[in-house]
């Protein structure tokens, strides 16, 4: 199995897609051909069929399975909280990590339901990143270190990887990443997060504008270091390590998608193995998915983060593969095919 290249320079990552494993068309075609033989009208399982072929191409087999689903939730703290952009206090990040470890959060319930093994990784919570209105969030070395920690957490034997995050203030950070990478107005990327009202949102947009203006002229992955969070850098590292092991990824909502936006801006092919679990109610997410060229699996008006949308969507992947692997073919079941198909 190819291993992930060394995280030795941020800008080198832009060239990684050429050396990382690619989608295997033959396996995807074998899966699509099997779908045509199963006891249902062609195409009637809709997106479930497309998902089965997607998993086939990345797992390099016409009959993919999900025996092991890994969920990783990364947590980080943010200096930008000093700007008063978040309704909840920063201590909630560590308190929620304790809640994850005790099994009391939404992500614990949804991973339990969908059969994902959850690991929570807190990244230097006592040392928040720098306030992005004043300095780069992370040095290159700090960002590479967080990426490496994310990559090292990936179980190379997993069949699918779910990613999530926890970090008070990171809806502001995510808006800054999107504004820096995709333009528009800062206000187009700012939303309520954990409950900012109209005045709070206006203040968030002003903070995002100032931060992005301060860190102009950077390459996409340098933007991650300048504006992002450690939990977001770790998500990028995990996405790349998963790719090296041919593990498809289920991203979560706005904050998780914003985390990987620098990879997309560096080279969209770096995210070819990633699905998006759900469309967040955070208004920037729909815009961001347009920019990433992705469609979310679910649209449930959720805006929590933690990986909850990814964990819920894992049930859909399981449904796709239950049908793909468990259904009888027309020949096996003695069911007559469509007359046009037999001609
Ligand atoms: C109790 C609680 C649990 C959470 N779980 C995820 N988030 C989510 O909210 C945060 C982002 O919103 P903002 O930028 O407004 O702080 C992130 O930690 C995200 O994971 C939570 C937030 C809270 C308060
Ligand atoms: O969609 C998300 O990731 C999100 C939205 C609001 C708050 N926390 C997370």
TrEMBL record:
Catalysed reactions, as listed in the record: 5,6-dimethylbenzimidazole + nicotinate beta-D-ribonucleotide = alpha-ribazole 5'-phosphate + nicotinate + H(+)
Keyword Glycosyltransferase (UniProt): yes
GO molecular function: nicotinate-nucleotide-dimethylbenzimidazole phosphoribosyltransferase activity
Pathway: Nucleoside biosynthesis; alpha-ribazole biosynthesis; alpha-ribazole from 5,6-dimethylbenzimidazole: step 1/2
UniProt keyword Transferase, yes or no: yes
UniProt KW keywords: Cobalamin biosynthesis, Glycosyltransferase, Transferase
Catalytic residues as annotated in Swiss-Prot or TrEMBL: 306 (proton acceptor)
GO biological process, one term: cobalamin biosynthetic process
Gene3D superfamilies: 1.10.1610.10, 3.40.50.10210
EC number(s) recorded for this UniProt protein: 2.4.2.21
Family indicated by similarity: Belongs to the CobT family.
Protein role: Catalyzes the synthesis of alpha-ribazole-5'-phosphate from nicotinate mononucleotide (NAMN) and 5,6-dimethylbenzimidazole (DMB).
Protein name: Nicotinate-nucleotide--dimethylbenzimidazole phosphoribosyltransferase
């Amino acid at each position: 199995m190819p291993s992930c290249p060394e995280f030795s320079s941020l800008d080198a990552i832009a060239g990684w897609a050429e050396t990382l494993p690619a989608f295997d068309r033959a396996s995807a075609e074998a899966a699509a051909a099997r779908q045509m033989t199963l006891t249902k009208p062609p195409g009637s399982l809709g997106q479930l069929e497309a998902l089965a072929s997607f998993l086939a191409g990345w797992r390099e087999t016409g009959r993919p399975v999900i025996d092991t689903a890994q969920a990783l939730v990364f947590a980080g703290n943010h200096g930008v909280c000093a700007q008063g952009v978040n309704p909840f206090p920063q201590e909630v990040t560590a308190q929620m990590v304790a809640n994850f470890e005790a099994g009391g959060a939404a992500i614990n319930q949804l991973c339990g339901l969908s059969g994902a093994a959850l690991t929570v990784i807190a990244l230097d919570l006592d040392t928040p990143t720098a306030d992005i209105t004043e300095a780069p969030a992370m040095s290159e070395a700090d960002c590479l270190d967080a990426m490496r920690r994310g990559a090292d957490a990936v179980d190379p034997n997993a069949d699918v990887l779910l990613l999530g995050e926890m970090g008070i203030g990171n809806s502001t950070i995510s808006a800054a990443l999107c504004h820096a990478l995709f333009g528009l107005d800062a206000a187009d990327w700012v939303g309520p997060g954990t409950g900012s009202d109209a005045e709070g949102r206006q203040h968030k947009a002003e903070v995002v504008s100032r931060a992005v203006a301060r860190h102009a002229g950077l390459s996409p992955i340098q933007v991650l270091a300048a504006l992002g969070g450690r939990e977001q850098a770790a998500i990028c590292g995990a996405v790349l390590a998963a790719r090296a092991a041919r593990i498809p990824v289920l991203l979560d909502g706005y904050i998780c998608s914003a985390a990987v936006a620098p990879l997309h801006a560096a080279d969209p092919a770096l995210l070819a193995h990633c699905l998006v679990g759900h469309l967040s109610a955070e208004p920037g997410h729909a815009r961001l998915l347009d920019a990433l060229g992705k469609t979310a699996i679910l649209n449930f008006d959720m805006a929590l983060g933690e990986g909850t949308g990814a964990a819920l969507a894992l049930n859909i992947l399981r449904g796709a593969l239950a049908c793909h692997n468990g259904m009888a073919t027309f020949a096996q079941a003695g069911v007559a095919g469509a007359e046009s198909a037999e001609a």
